[in-house]
Amino acid sequence: MGELTAELAVKRNPELQIVGRQFNQQQFAIAAGKGSSLIEPLNQALIALQSDGTFAELVDQYLQVNASHVTPEGDAAVVENESAPTQPETTPAPAPCITSMAFVADLNYDDKNMTAPPLMAPGQDFVKNWRVLNNGTCDWAPDYALAYVSGNRIEASMGGSAVPIGRTVKPGEMVDLSASLRAPQVSGVFQGFWQMRDTLGQYFGEVVWVGIQVPDPNPPVPPPPPPTQDINPNLRADSVHIAAGQCTTIRWDVDNVSAVYFIDGGNQQGVAGHDARNVCPGGTTTYTLRVTDRNGGNYDFAHDQRERRT
């Protein structure tokens, strides 16, 4: 940025510093055609603005710097229409390299993206192996390390320590890393996240993880199914064989059930557990008593009223 802009930024943000001064010194002017009759009036107008303080007020209002710092003096204010002097060529500084890491594969104990974490006994020792790639442009130093950073539970570190690279890894190279771990003593699903760390303690690259499951040694025992009810509604009729149009009474007695229904043809009617219905069938008819037990099971009991023929 320009020097004035940089000075204003530092003034407003004291934690910043200006570096690389005089990379590109510039002067600003109003351009006019060579030999133009407007040059003299423009110069006189600029002098008038500087003389009456208007220029300084504008600098103070919009730039908040000393007006003398932006006003060239003497010959420095004169710009001739000539070719700029040739500047010595400079070699640009090389761009900084990029430090990065990419996950390649789980070499063992693949948790299938946490859909099937391997089963471990409480306190079981195991070694997790990953293959990773230096996909940046910087070398990895031998003291770079793969380190545990977080997990889904406090025990998810599984006692693991940072794993040093142990050698220089060039960009484009792959390396296999192994972490010695121990399954937690408590049951559950555990997922620990690991990431590469440089010599300054800065983490970089993709996150890898290890996921396992420790089964509960004493899983809860499901409650036994409720005992099957022995339901006998004692369905009966005062008279079983009756003449057409003759009436009789059907009775029943049942306890400890959820519901009872009396079904006469297509008509179902809720009734009490100890109840009766008077019926007058025109011919042989089947009446049904439907009983719903406390577990939701339904039981049908039928009784025939047969026509007596003479």
Topology, pairings included?
Layout: H1 3-12, H2 39-51, H3 54-62, E1 102-106, E2 125-133, E3 145-151, E4 163-164, E5 174-182, E6 188-197, E7 203-214, E8 236-237, E9 241-242, E10 248-253, E11 259-264, E12 267-271, E13 274-279, E14 285-292, E15 298-307
Parallel strand pairs: 9-15
Antiparallel strand pairs: 1-2, 2-5, 3-4, 3-6, 6-7, 8-10, 10-13, 11-12, 11-14, 14-15
What keyword list fits this structure?
single chain; 310 residues; mainly beta; Immunoglobulin-like; 3 domains; five-stranded mixed beta sheet; four-stranded antiparallel beta sheet; 3 helices
Describe it for me?
This protein is elongated. The protein contains 3 helices and 15 strands. The mean pLDDT is 85. It is mostly beta strands.
Please provide a brief summary of the model.
The chain contains three helices and 15 strands.
Uncertain segments: none
Total count of domains: 3
How many strands appear in the DSSP assignment?
A: 15
Report the helical percentage: 10-25%
What is the name of the CATH superfamily of the largest domain?
A: Immunoglobulins
Bin the strand percentage.
25-35%
Overall pLDDT: 85
The CATH class of the largest domain turns out to be Mainly Beta
Which value, in Å, is the CA radius of gyration? 47 Å
Query: H/E element string?
Result: HHHEEEEEEEEEEEEEEE
Strand order of the largest sheet: 9-15-14-11-12
CATH topology of the largest domain, by name, is Immunoglobulin-like
Any idea what the shape is? elongated
The CATH architecture term of the largest domain is Sandwich
Distance between the termini: 121 Å
The number of distinct helices, counting runs of at least 4 residues, comes to 3
The largest β sheet comes out as:
5 strands, mixed
The class by helix and strand makeup works out as: mainly beta
